[in-house]
Specification:
Monomer. The chain has 492 residues and is of the alpha/beta class. The protein has helices at 45-63, 90-98, 102-119, 135-147, 162-168, 179-185, 226-238, 252-267, 298-303, 315-323, 335-355, 368-380, 385-403, 411-428, 434-459, 463-475; strands at 10-13, 18-21, 29-34, 67-72, 151-154, 157-160, 201-206, 222-224, 242-248, 272-278, 281-283, 286-287, 331-333, 478-483, 486-491. The radius of gyration is 27 Å and the shape is globular. The structure holds adenosine monophosphate and zinc ion (ZN).
Length: 492
Amino acid sequence: MDLYKENQLKIYNSLSKSKELFKPITDGRVGMYVCGPTVYSNVHLGNIRTFMSFDMVFRYLLHLGYKVRYVRNITDAGHLENDADEGEDRIAKKARLEQIEPMEVVQRYTVDFHTVAAKYNFLPPSIEPTATGHIVEQIEMIKKIMDKGLAYEVNGSVYFDVLAYNKENHYGILSGRNIEDAIHNTRALDGQSEKRNPQDFALWKKADDRHIMRWPSPWSDGFPGWHLECSVMSSKYLGDQFDIHGGGMDLKFPHHECEIAQSHTCSGVQPVNYWMHANMLLLNGQKMAKSTGNYVLPDDILTGNNEVLPKAFGVGVVRFFIMQAHYRSVLDFSGEALLASEKGFNRLMEAVDYLADITPGNSSDFNVAEWKQKCYDAMNDDFNTPILIAHLFEAVKFINQLKDKKATISSADLTLLTNSLHAFVFDILGLVNDAKEQSSDKLGGVVDLLIKLRKEARDNKDWDLSDQIRDELAALGIQLKDGREGTSFTIN
Ligand code: AMP
Ligand code: ZN
């Protein structure tokens, strides 16, 4: 159903710094581009938070009935160590340190990212293009920018001329930075740099002899600048102008500012209608980051294998924890915060499970239609998931009253409540009901232990104990079956 027709979705646009009514370029369709990971290392939970924010946005747009083309790239070349134009390529450096091919690094961490994304219940994007797969298009875009007179070549490298661009355009339109101030505040170039101005950024870098990731171009054997790939791949798959561009807050400058300058130079139009930026996940009050060692891996949480964690947690709890904060607010990670989220998550899951056992009455003590609208209103207000979750707990309270026979619900309302709760909890927030799975894993572990003890009893010819274990498990509905491969069990 085209729910988008009856829902006035508002999105906070980083470009206008205000919430705007969302109106896609083509009615019923949405084009969304999100900057993906640089695959030189495992993604940490901070990266996962940003990708989860956009997974939730993607899920809500799909729920509203939009046909969404969601492009999330893989950066496998061009991202240098210090986010600027100096230093080694992150992937090439890892390859050098580990004495493997750069493409082995790319493969290993792309697979890791996909595995984590699947475990964390992310919907796959519609297209996942790579920088190295679009070198030809990147060279073409550089040529176009040079033709417009806004890039220059020095010693085989090509730089974007920010000052020339800024004469007729506004470099700083997204980040609010003023280029004139920036020029005042930066040291003059020391004569070593090839750039005319420190604000200029690389479109193409000539590779020195040691640099193994290199491609031929009209200017040199080299590699593209980091910002270029996103301009190229977003316009290739979504057009010169598209609806939503997302990424973490830390990408706003210089990455997204440079993307706008490149794309706008080529097409003459603003490339993106709604710029969305997700806020950072903190650990110990600092941004989670690989470079500082201040991070937790997504797998650590599932195993409990990290000193900041009191125990292991399921994916449902982590998603619930992240969705309890608005995507534009910073979020502090800690073991205690996860424990608190686990309590809330379990209460929500118990209520969802309990709904299936309710017998409807003749009338309702809860206005389900009104509640459902409040849930949509929260999501329509710039994807306000914490408010949505607060509303979900109003339903939990009511379900618990039903359980205690202190309230009733009509049959029609029971269907509406069940369908809506499932849509918000599973389709939109992407929570997974793994609380039950975990307890059945634990039960399986206990039965395996009893099977082992029974075998020991049999080996010792202690038939009484062995029969007792089998019979008492059977009385609990757990049947043991002895076979050639050992003993298996079924639970009724
Ligand atoms: P990278 O692989 O470094 O290009 O980062 C991938 C994505 O993760 C980008 O959108 C970053 O903005 C985002 N990111 C990096 N660190 C954090 C953090 N601590 N919290 C949330 N997002 C982050
Ligand atoms: Zn990007």
